Amino acid sequence: MSSTAQELIPPEAREPARPRAIKGGRVRRLSGRDKLVLSLMVGIPTLIELALVWLPTLMSVGLSFTRWNGLDLADIHSAGTENYQFIAQDYPPFWPALQHNMLWLLFLALIATPLGLLLAVLLDQNIRGSKIYQSIFFAPVMLSLALIGIIWQLFYQRDNGLLNFLLGTAGTPNAVDWFGDSSVNIWAALIAATWRHAGYVMLLYLAGLKGVDPSLKEAAAIDGANAVQTFFRVVFPAMRPINIVIVVITIIESLRAFDVVYVINRGTNGLEMLSALVIQNLVGEGQVIGVGSALAVVLLVISLVPIVFYLSRTFGKENQP
Amino acid sequence: MSIATARTAGNDTTILSRSGSRPKRHYGTHIFLVAMAVMWLVPLGWALFTALRPVASTNEHGYFSVAGDFNFDNFVQAWTQGGFATYFWNSVIITVPAVLLTLFLASLMAFAVSRVNWKFNITLLIMFTAGNLLPPQVLAAPLFEMAKHLEVPYSFSDSGNLLNTYIVVIAIHVAFQMGFCTFVLSNYMKALSPDLTEAALVDGAGIWRQYREIIMPLCRPAFAALGTLEVIFIYNDYFWPLLFIQSGNRLPITTAINNLQGQFLSNYNLLAAGAVITVIPTLVIYLLLQRQFVAGLTLGSSKG
């Protein structure tokens, strides 16, 4: 079910294990035409990346210090830190949104991710029907989060939803509108998000577990470790690269959480999230670009923590001479 | 050979103990997995069950019953009434060019940073990878305003600017997904032997021939995996069309499904049928290309 980059490469084309020959000086051998080809190869994608990803990111930072209704470019006025003061002091959904993002992260990190790991560990044993179980748990990963919102809406509705029927509350005054009731809807949305996230984590850990050298486990067994000790002291630490990826994915998914809440009620009434607040301020009647951008910058600053962590782990070694 | 046997023993701590009593030890595991699998299938199963029942029989017998007819009428009605044909076609118009362009540009970039020694390789690769990790909402405002204020002839776009066009959605998909694909492809190309291009270099092959005739053919497995993954990613994207496309009949299916909630007001059978129809393309891709899809997902994480 799983394969890694290395496995996909035909053996004869793989880089040999022997130390590589010194490769310096190759650039000097390039002809003028090659240099032109290379600069186009690098230049075009870089230009697109800069113009459509990094320039807008910087512009978000810039716009967060301005007041603008999004109509005439000449109407952009400097506002100092007004927008930030506004969202912190006078914008009621801001703090609930921050809390919900935190809750989202904690729920994914403490429940969805460990559940995915547990499923992977159980399915990594040679049990009968492992492939079928994997396909079932993995199925929601194929679905868009927007669609997941709709599917769970059918399950959660007040009058005709299956959950209220199973709880015996359907048709009674005790029936709960799981996505509509602001005291429970964040939890209902988190269950729906877990449904997808756990399958994703399971898949990555299944690949990770296959990559753990079996002799490590044997050695631990010879030393008298039981299965649980072997897992936590030997196997889990050996999967460090995958663990890092999963930590980063979990944090970033919780910051990106948007589709599910936006499909349910556009991120209002108990489902405030930073990403949804950004969009609420950009579209619709009262466009307040400055406020929306200030919220985007808050989101950006938080996101930079996992991004920098991941990049330093991934590229840190290569950067050293 | 001994490693192979040890691996088939899976998580069992001792190889010796696996004979005889082994199947017994998994009963608890199976009970847990079956319970989880049922919980996993219930929401999907409920949607399918509701979709298969005409609204008349659910009105008569209630949603929590098995009485009455089962047929595909809801699917037919949802398809025609919901305008699915248009939405699916819009998804194709956006997804196909976006995936092809993303893979092409990412392969150029990945080749340049992985096969040629150059001072800024790592810097560029970090910039590309980081760009892909940003939450899309961070760049939404400036991109929206850029599209709105960039005036184009009315013959090109009936809004007079880039809003409401497929071009802008495709472009932003390419820019956003290119980072991930470049990262994965460059790792893949780095794992290819340097002798391959060294030999070509001795033969006098230029950069373009090395890329086109040596590296590209070897990258086919990576393209298959990434291509499958990107088709699903872009097909499933909800946000960018929501931001840029205002007229409902130009939305791709994933974004349009939200409007069905209003359109099929309180007819949950139709809504369920619409949801199931939307799942079908991903399901087909998953069943046909499961191996590629899974390979694509794990490719990105194989290096840390």
From TrEMBL, chain B:
Family, similarity comment: Belongs to the binding-protein-dependent transport system permease family.
Kindly report the protein's main subcellular placement as a broad class. Answer: membrane
Annotated Gene3D superfamilies: MetI-like (1.10.3720.10)
Q: Where is the composition biased (Polar residues)?
A: 8-20
Q: What is this protein called?
A: Multiple sugar transport system permease protein
Q: PROSITE patterns, per this entry?
A: ABC_TM1 (PS50928)
Tell me the compartments it is located in.
Cell membrane
Q: What is the lineage of its organism?
A: Bacteria, Bacillati, Actinomycetota, Actinomycetes, Micrococcales
Q: Which residues cross the membrane?
A: 27-49, 87-112, 124-144, 164-185, 218-235, 268-289
Keyword terms? Cell membrane, Membrane, Sugar transport, Transmembrane, Transmembrane helix, Transport
**InterPro entries on file:** MetI-like (IPR000515), MetI-like_sf (IPR035906)
Instruction: Please name the source species.
Output: Pseudarthrobacter enclensis
Q: Which Pfam families match?
A: BPD_transp_1
According to the lineage, what is the superkingdom?
Bacteria
Topology in the lipid bilayer: Multi-pass membrane protein
The UniProt entry, under CDD domains, shows: TM_PBP2
Region (Disordered) spans which residues?
Answer: 1-22
Ranges of residues in domain ABC transmembrane type-1: 88-289
